[in-house]
Each structure stands twice: as C-alpha cells, then as structure tokens.
Amino acid sequence: MPPSCASDVVAHSYGGFVALQAARAVPIRRMVTYDAAVSLAGNLSVRWRPELEASMAAGALDDAWAHLVQGLETAGPVSRLPLGALRLLSVLSVRTSLGAEMRGLLPTAVAEMRAVLAADAAVDDFLAVAAPTLMLSGGWSPSYFAETGRMLSAGVPAIESARVPGQLHAGPIRSGNRLAVITARFLLGGKSAPGPVRRGGHRFVLRR
What we know:
41% of the residues lie in helices and 11% in strands. By secondary structure, it is α/β, with parallel strands linked by helices.
C-alpha cells in the first residue's frame, strides 16, 4: 500500500490479528477490530489444544472440532459442553451448509492459531499503531478478547476498546445491523459510544 493511500480497515478474529500487525508498519486511516485474536504475554497459550492438531492429523475431524470449540470458547455456552456432546454436535452440524463450511476451515484454524501464538507480543510492541483504532468485543464472546482490548487501549494512545452487549463471537456474520452501525460511526469519525468516552483502558459499554 503506497504511503499516500488512506484506507479504513474492519477485521474480525484472526483478521483483527492481521490488521493490528499490519497497522504497526502500514499507513491506515481508521480501523475497527472485533474479537481480535492477539496474544499478549502468552495469554492465549492456554487456549491451544495439542489434541486439536493430533486429531486433524489422524483425520478425526469431529474430535478436532470439539477441541477447537472447547479450547477457544467462541461458541458461547455451547463451548462448555463435554467433549462427547461437542463431537455429537459436530456430526449433526456438518449436515448444514454452515457446519460443512466450518468443517472445511479446520485446517485453517490450526494454522491461524499457530501464527497468533508465534507472534506473541507485549503491549509496547503496538505503540507504532498510529491509526485511530476501536477494538470491539462481544458481550457473549470469551472474556479474553475484551481483556486484550483493555490492555492495548491502556497502553497505546491510538487504541480504545469497547464491549458490545448481546453479541457472540460470530456477531459480524449474523443478522442485525448493530455492529455495522457502530463500525460505520467510528470510521466516519464520530464517537465510538454515546456520551463521554473513558480512555486509559477503562471499559465502556455501548448502548442503543
């Protein structure tokens, strides 16, 4: 991207990781991430399940899906089910178009998680991010996404964070325009939340 270009970036999950890494070196005008998968001081290492990769290598895709969902906890309350129940859900979900698509993405999930863990960083490593950045996380997403946003917004002047009530990790691909409205408002240079915004890593809640 030429330095003269001004671009807005919106990124979800692993895309948020890629966007934040790029923003350390590439000029970006404004940026919004949702549940960005960024590892800070090893905080995501406990999410890695070696059994996931072993199951993939053995072709046991239902086992792999169960370990992925339980380890990352990105499926809301479903993530807390026992592995046996998650395996059964995998068998059932693959009969749907979305379930089949997610099954096909399992190898990608392994590669993405390895890349995130390999790029483990400290908050100060993101001080080069100059673009005004809003890190959103879902109210029903795993809490580690919100914690990452709070840590980065506390230490990086260009970053602020917010948690959006009622949203799952898959919020950006589900019906409804709430996230789209919040994102568009920020990219247009408006306030990221109604009323005063508390910076310095303090959480604020977006309301209707």
